[in-house]
Design a protein that fits this description.
SUKH-3 immunity protein; 39% helix
């Protein structure tokens, strides 16, 4: 990952603020628009004082700033799982094999699973199973987060039409 593509605190803080600010007016009109109350939709910032599970690289920088992404009412629901869940699943089930040498860690979902390799490449499962075929969808975590921001903003715009 190049220096320009790193996930520093400022970039992650700005990313989470942009999404949370865009969600506020969307959620305020959600009940009128959809006829049922929204779930908890937010990018939850990490509690810097809390002792938590140490996430594996390349997710460690992300989890130092963001605890989870909870967007149950965006599309099919978009989630970046909390670090404890990611580490717990990694301990219980291990990594996911992607061919002969590559392996990845499940960290997100939206009806399909997302995983990240040690090199930082993001993959999406074709089904909601660890045994599914996985296809690459992002060059790194920042690319994936930019795609997620685009999807959130696009969903909000289309729901307002």
């Amino acid at each position: 990952m190049s220096a320009a593509r790193t996930l520093d605190v400022a970039w992650l803080t700005s990313w989470s603020s942009e999404i949370n600010q865009a969600l506020a007016p969307f959620l305020a009109g959600f009940m009128n628009r959809f006829g049922y109350p929204p779930g908890d939709n937010l990018v939850r910032v990490a509690d810097q004082g809390a002792v938590s599970t140490e996430p594996p690289p390349p997710l460690d920088a992300f989890y130092r700033v963001i605890d989870a992404v909870l967007l149950p009412d965006i599309g099919n629901g978009c989630f970046v799982h909390p670090a404890d869940q990611v580490v717990g699943e990694l301990r219980e089930q291990g990594t996911v094999r992607l061919g002969e040498e590559a392996r990845g860690i499940i960290f997100a979902s939206d009806g399909a699973l997302r995983l990240i390799t040690g090199a930082g490449v993001i993959y999406r499962s074709r089904t909601a199973s660890r045994d599914s075929e996985f296809v690459p969808i992002g060059e790194d975590l920042r690319d994936y987060l930019e795609q997620l921001r685009h999807a959130v903003f696009g969903f909000i715009r289309s729901a307002e039409l």
